[in-house]
Design brief:
The strands form 23 sheets. Strands 1, 2, 3, 5, 7, 10 and 11 form a 7-stranded mixed beta sheet that branches. Strands 51, 52, 54, 55, 56 and 57 form a 6-stranded antiparallel beta sheet that branches. Strands 68, 69, 71, 72, 73 and 74 form a 6-stranded antiparallel beta sheet that branches. The chain is extended and about 155 Å long. Helix 6 (434-521) packs antiparallel against helix 8 (552-572), helix 6 crosses helix 9 and helix 7 (529-542) runs parallel beside helix 8 (552-572). Helix content is 15%, strand content 40%. By secondary structure, it is mainly beta.
Amino acid sequence: MWKRSKVTDQTAAGQTGIKKKSKVPGVMITQFLEELPEGKSTPDFTRKPIALTIQEGKCAVFKAIVVGTPTPTITWGRANGEIHFHPDMCLQKYDEASREHTIEFPKVAPEDADTYKCFATNEYGRAVCTVALNVIAVGFSKTKELQKTQVEDTKDIRQKLKKRKEDGTREEKKMEPEEKVWEILLSADKKDYERICGEYGITDFRRMLKKLSEMKKEREEEIAEFVTHISTLKHIEVNDSDCATIELDMDLKDPTSKLFLYKDGVMVPFTTEESESMKHNLKQVGKKYVFTIKNLGSEDAGLYSVDVGGINVFSTDFKVPEVDFAVKIQEVIAEERQDALFQCVLTAPTDDLKWLGKSAPLSNSEKFEITVSEDKLIHKLMVRDCMPLDAGIYAAVAGIKSCNAWLVVEVDKDAASKGKKATRKTTTAGGANEQDLMTIAKEQQEMYQKKLDEKIEMAKKAQAEREAAEAVAKVEGEAAKKAAAEEKAAAKAAAKAKAAAKAKAKRAAAAEDAAAGKKKAAAAAAAGAGAGGADGGKGADGGAAVGVGGEGGTAAGAGGAEGLGEEYDSFEDSDGEIEGEGGGGVGGGEGAGDGGVGGGEGDGEEGEGRQGGKRKKRVRDGPLVPDTVIDPGVHFHAGLSDCKAIIGEAAELECKVSREDCEGLWYKDGEEIQSSEDITISKDGTFHRLKIHKVTEEYAGKYKFEADGRKTESLIVVEDPPRFPAEELEAFKNPVTVKKGHKASFKLPYFGREPIKIQWYLDGEELSEEATIKLDYSEGCSSLLLTKLQRKDSGEVKMKLKNEFGTVEAISQLIVLDKPTPPMGPLEIVEASSSTIDFKWRPPKDSGGCKIDNYILDRQQVGRNTWKKVGPIGPEPKYKDSDVDHGRRYCYRIRVETEMGTSELMETEDIQAGTKAYPGAPSSPKVVTAFKDCINLSWSPPSETGGTNILGYNLEKRKKGSNLWGQVNAPDEMIKGKGCGVKDVVEGMEYEFRVSAINNSGAGEFSTPSEFVFARDPKKPPGKVIDFKVTDSTYTTLSLSWTKPKDIEGVEDEAKGYFVEIRPAESTDWDRCNSNAITMTSYTVKGLKSMGMYWVRAIATNDGGEGEAQELDNYILATPPPVRPRFTDVKIKSFMVVRAGNSARFTINFEASPWPEVIWLKDGSPVPKKVTISNTEGSSQLLIPSSERSDTGIYTIIVKNIVAQESFSIEIRVTDEPKPPGPVETDENVPGTVTISWTPSPDEKRDDRLHYMVTKRDSSKSTWHTIADHIFNNRFTLCNIMPGREYQFRVYAKNDMGSSKHSESPKWLIPSKRAKFTVTMPETKACDLQCPPKFLLPLKMHTAPQGYECYMSCAIKGDPTPHVTWLRNNISLNTNTNYFISNTCGVCSLLILRVGPKDTGEYKIVAENSMGRAECSTKLTVRE
């Protein structure tokens, strides 16, 4: 049975709400009717959507399959917000083949993450299920960064929309398109979002929705300040009286709130009274407000906004199409029950034409038919089956144009038909000539197309002019660019010429060095003549070909020098203009330096260099490893490092080489640089530095330092972060002090690379343009102007600049001066004597930002009306008044005076001069020590002294059991200190004491009495407690009990209290559980660790001290007493069926002590890894997520501890609705029976609990009845087949989850006519077998369900064959065709085809023959 519970939430009108549980977990069904009609059902899910966790940008799909009669309608929703269906965002589909309803997110985004709901609804109920979508955000999103540049921040947009004057009205200016589109979207319907975005060019639909949601939330909060409730927001509508209306229902918090109407941001005046002179009118009826615009024209188009108290509550965009009526509708006279036709022709095609009937909008229905021609110029309204009630004025409205005409319905006046409904007529009244309308429409179409072509031509012309202007600008730009390139090339050529001159000078110097080397090479000339000559030739090729064959060293030297110089030039000038002049670089240089010895070898190897600008193959002449050690040359210990430089500041590059005598050259972007006014090149030992004194943009680039053929490079990156001038920044830091109501301005110049984002903050809150805040952003400077300042506006003012290179802040202070607040109480009276009143108070909470100059006091004697000015008394918050009369009461008024003025007053309570103010009670006396002849006491002074100093104390004592107090000290000798030793005591007596304080007024109240104390010597500590034991324990508590120790006179005195101490086994320190001694002989220790080991002891104590501790013999475990495991659930399921794909969860509760071990097994083995086991204190849960058929089995939980173990098993069967069985066949093996056989269901092998059910229907009935169930084979034989009836059978496969679809058999029929059966009997002898009728088998009692068959039978014998009569309630049934009666060989039977209540009663069968008569009866009961 379904579980039903009444639903409290609202359903459709007239419907009840009954909640039912679906077979699918997680689906809730609400049934609208108490009883469903036959064949109808509520919606249900056979497959619900599955939760998804998906990566951002992927495609997410939810699928669901539903059933129900009639077919349910599927809708989707989400928990937070609404689903926006758009081809790029979300699609809803239905696949008829698979019957799957899907919702698809093509590119899922993080904002799509939510809980979604799927609703299936028909007229009998609703089913709902939920599913979660989780989105994993991935990396950096280019789309989001692009959106930041495409869509302005919501806050900035809202600030633009919020710009108001002080009275709440808007600024008098036209709205920008960006402001306009957002105001339209805030009030538009969701179905119009796509159209509006297309009109205003918004392409990022998702970003727009997110921003719009934030803006709507903010506007709702603003509206809530003025409006309690707002609804029925109707956009602007045009009626047939050339008027347009804006309608909204709202409940204003303040009925006096002002309403404003704006058109495109400009206020529109309106009247609240009916006036023909005013174009705009406001009509209020209760909570409904209707704005009317009269005499509509094209100038009335625009964005209309309604504001309440300076807050926009509704906006609507009114568009006026350029359309008019070429042919207006005409009056139509129609007869009753005839159709009426109105027609009109427009000047421009449009879809948006509205028809009105008697001022009510009309739409397509059985009564009205609205048609539009293909060119959208001819519009028709057909009023079908006109009745007298249909008569009236009908109107057509196109844009702001309208036309109307009467429909006159002529009633049939025939007297014969009076009171009868007239006959429906097939003719149509009204309507002009169709051909004429087509001609007019064609003319209008041509005129419209001509105007459209003219507009397109003008647009093309304007576009051509724009393109021509852009082309001219482009040519001028290219010319300027070409001129700049030529100027740059000329500068570069000059630089090359300069470099060539330097190279020439170096070659001349090298030639002089070679001449000097001739003399040194003379000694080696003979040895190196041949080789030198050859090499010299090569050197000449590489250089300028100086020298002859016999003087090889010289030739080589010159060639090498030239080669070096030319290679340098070639490296620096990448254009290669002088590359062909020489090439031998490094080798040639070495030959020149070494003279005769090394010159030949060096020139032969390196002097080849390049010839004609091409490198030749190097040939080694000497040994691979030279015999001499060659100087490795200069190398770098530290190279250049990249440097970030700020414009206007200094930058320095530094490197360190290996030798001090090394010289080097500096280059920037390949060009040599020298020291100048802006650049200093210096050398300090091995350090070489280049310093730029003031960095500018042109100093950015690649810098290189070269020394002895080695080089190091670095980059100087010039940055221009925002910065403030130092002097202006120091001036800005000085606090700004202004008076209340005045204005304060802050201005600070800055410099840095644009764009720079400028933000102003006050006390950490960013400032934006408002009525009292003015922000100015000019080039290189920004200012802040604050007006109408209040004291609360004081705080830190910060200006923050940010660009691509960094952020900088400047901080100042704003101090707003105001009058101080009143002084603060409470008043503290220092002295109130007969001649002086001395009191003080607290300074004001806020001095107004100024120093307190004076406190001004006025005094009034209580009982008089005048105040006496005491005068300024200085900045100290205290006053001593000596001009007082004894016994008089005075009141004071105190003000604070600063340079900004005087504060409000603070009035004191009445103070009496000279009144006796007694001190309060001291604390209760405490016993310090007690002896048989002396008791020492101490106490604390009273908190209330009565306004004067405490002079001393009086001490009194009282014996226990007495009511009389006796003073300890003499009446004229007060106790000066805060303690006293009382010696006037009697040994063995018990005393209590009290004390009072004395001031100038006298003795005050006595304190509460002290504890009773014996006048005796100190007691002896008690002994050990007896019978110390544990009475109970849990995981966190321990209960103890003991017996008080024995009292041994002179050795161990009586115990007055007890302490319990505990020590964890791993610690050596004892912790006291009770801070104060307990008097009871039991205690419960709390806060123990579960299963912790503890040592426990108890200590007795009295006035003599603490006795010896009594410790338990063994440690104690913090655990309850051992308890055998036991399952505590009253009813535990032992069998569970789960649909495949759903989760299976089984929870079982138990109790056991100590904490048991919980083990789960599946079919005797450990559970698979996919099964989740959750154990808590006293319960365990098994969870199978997304179960499969393989998870079917017997799951056993074993709970065991040191006491015992207990187990329980549950069979979990994972299955699904079975597949239907195969084809069904029928066969008659035995007459009167039929055998039904079928092919097994495909699931039979996988499900051992699968069985079959057979139903039948015969030609005499229209319903199906179950004839067999729980069949575990594939055949069934049905008896009692009636001849002449047509039978049909259905077979269902069933399991624990439900039943499959049916498999149906072909129709089965046994013909009623049979061939005659002839029996040839042998001749027999006559035998008299006559006997009266007798019942061999009587009738039985029958109870049949309503609607089912009932079969009665009995057996009779008799000779001759008796005549059988059936009776019901003594009425013969033999002739009743509703009963099938047969008598075959003495077996009499009665078949009731379909039992009903009328069949209830007594049935009797009477058998009669010539020998006698017999009767037999039974009763039939019909069960509903």
